[in-house]
Hints:
Layout: H1 3-9, E1 16-19, H2 23-37, E2 44-47, H3 50-58, H4 66-69, E3 74-78, E4 81-82, E5 88-89, H5 96-104, E6 109-114, E7 127-132, H6 137-146, E8 150-153, E9 155-156, E10 159-160, E11 168-173, H7 180-188, E12 193-196, E13 198-199, E14 205-209, E15 216-221
Parallel strand pairs: 1-2, 1-3, 3-6, 6-14
Antiparallel strand pairs: 4-5, 5-13, 7-11, 7-12, 8-11, 9-10, 14-15
Helix pairs in contact: 1-2
Amino acid sequence: MTIYERALELVPDGSVIGLGSGRAAWAFVKLLGERVSCGRLTIRGVPTSEETARVAADHGVPLVSLAEAGELAVTVDGADEVDPNLDLIKGYGRALIREKVVAASSRRLVILVGQEKMVPQLGTRGRLPVEMVPFAVPLGIRRLGALGLRPVLWEKDGRAGETDNGNHILDCEIRPIQNPGRLRAEIHAIPGMVGTGLFLGMADTVLIGDDHDFRLTAERRRNDI
Length: 225
């Protein structure tokens, strides 16, 4: 069984679900589309990015807005880091704000990762994305630097990259985080800060698979911690 097949088992028939962004999430969306197309599953999805919306549309997954959906049964997404408490760092794919909103709108968050994303402590991979409104970027750079982070403005095609929300991303070079909750609060105190890649206490289930074919090798649940 693959992690995508296991994730499908956690999707209630007839429900509205959140569709994550990134390689693992898009692979799940494609398999979901196959099940929908052959009539084995009836669902509607809320995408976390414009690219996810395109993937879903290409594979026959019907979409609704978050306003139409209300509370979601489950969201299936990926992550860039998962620690032993199932806390996450997300946002390398630049969809962190919509991912966090959709996850918070869901009764359950299921995360799909390869073993290489499992870390002993958040920050191990050395990067934390922070989304800022464009006007606040100079202030954000100064304030994040004062917190001991090293913010670098994300650029795309030679200019400041824009998220689907029209904002900018500061990629902060970090060391393993001793107190993620405190760091999140300190960053959130910066005016113009939209959100961080710290997803604390949000994941309910993490499905871990081999990085090459994503065969399910482990399943961890928050109530097992």
